[in-house]
From TrEMBL:
Origin superkingdom: Eukaryota
Pfam family, one: Pkinase
Residues involved in ATP binding: 48
PANTHER family to which the protein is assigned, alphabetical: MAP/MICROTUBULE AFFINITY-REGULATING KINASE, TESTIS-SPECIFIC SERINE_THREONINE-PROTEIN KINASE 1
Keywords: ATP-binding, Developmental protein, Differentiation, Kinase, Magnesium, Metal-binding, Nucleotide-binding, Phosphoprotein, Serine/threonine-protein kinase, Spermatogenesis, Transferase, Ubl conjugation
Family: Belongs to the protein kinase superfamily.
Alphabetical list of SUPFAM superfamilies matching this protein: Protein kinase-like (PK-like)
Stated name of the protein: Testis-specific serine/threonine-protein kinase 1-like
Stored SMART domains: S_TKc
Length: 286
């Protein structure tokens, strides 16, 4: 009963702030996301609720406050917009725009590999979002298909900044972040790493998945995966229709030598993307 009363009081407080909460969209061990409507913005929204009592102490102390500071400063059309951050007792409510067409992984599972022209447009928006971060000395450190959302106009919306942080030129990190399947070899080997370069590797994995519908490496054995990464053994499935300029770009991003790995500017200037422009999408895609 006490828990129900606490939730009702929180709902009323959020209602006073202009948010009417709806059904639960997803739930984890210490966080859940609820559907909502924002009266102030006259649109559907999502509210991520983090319970600091249930969350690991390391997460609360090292990552949460940094994430909350970063997400409120972000302003890019291909990054999920945060409207408000509201703290009520042990819970944090992150009120943000909603991307109604799910994430990129769901998109690929439903449709298979993404055709070249569509992949170019989607990946361009993704690169522009990451380029915005890197240009503002921010790094994501958890880029993966699940964190790339798609809105009702089929625009890419980058989300989940739980491992994001600021960086200075030449600064290295020792913190393992993200998922092993998307991790660069220097991360898996436990070496100090250049943070923007880590993002680039993960982007290469994302692009490979987009155009082939499969993973570039088998992550069931990390030791074998590191060996393949260091030997530049990026194979494409037989019969995969991946244009040569796209294959070349993937190899440039999945380069073990960090000094030779692509940057966001290299990607934008690549033969595969250099002439691509993202069209204006005024109407929702049904």
């Amino acid at each position: 009963m006490a828990k129900r009363g606490e939730e009702n009081r929180a709902d009323e407080h959020l209602k006073d702030k202009g948010y009417i909460l709806g059904d639960v969209l997803g739930e984890g061990s210490y966080a859940k996301v609820r559907n909502a409507y924002s009266r102030n913005h006259n649109c559907r929204a999502a509210v991520k609720i983090i319970n600091k009592r249930k969350a690991p102490r390391n997460f609360v102390v090292r990552f949460l406050s940094r994430e909350l500071e970063i997400i409120q400063k972000l302003d890019h059309p291909n990054i999920i917009k945060v409207f408000d951050v509201i703290e009520l007792g042990p819970k944090v409510y992150i009120c943000m725009e909603i991307a109604g067409h799910g994430d990129l992984l769901e998109y690929i599972r439903l449709r298979g590999s993404v055709p070249d022209e569509t992949a170019k447009l989607m990946f361009l928006e993704f690169v522009e979002a990451v380029d915005y971060l890197h240009s503002n000395n921010l790094t994501h450190r958890d880029l993966k298909c699940e964190n790339i959302l798609i809105d009702t106009r089929n625009n890419i919306k980058l989300s989940d900044f739980g491992f994001a942080r600021t960086f200075t030129e030449g600064e290295f990190s020792r913190t393992f972040c993200g998922s092993a399947a998307y991790a660069a070899p220097e991360i898996l080997q436990g070496h100090p790493y250049n943070m923007p370069a880590y993002d680039i590797w993960s982007m290469g994995v994302v692009l490979y998945i987009m155009v082939t519908g499969s993973m570039p490496y088998d992550d069931s054995s990390v030791r074998r995966m590191i060996k393949e990464q260091l030997e530049r053994r990026v194979r494409f499935p037989r019969g995969a229709r991946v244009a040569p300029p796209c294959r070349s770009l993937i190899h440039h991003m999945l380069t073990a030598d960090v000094t030779q790995r692509a940057t966001t500017q290299d990607i934008l200037a690549s033969d595969w993307l250099k002439d691509v422009r993202s069209p204006k999408k005024d109407k929702p895609v049904e």
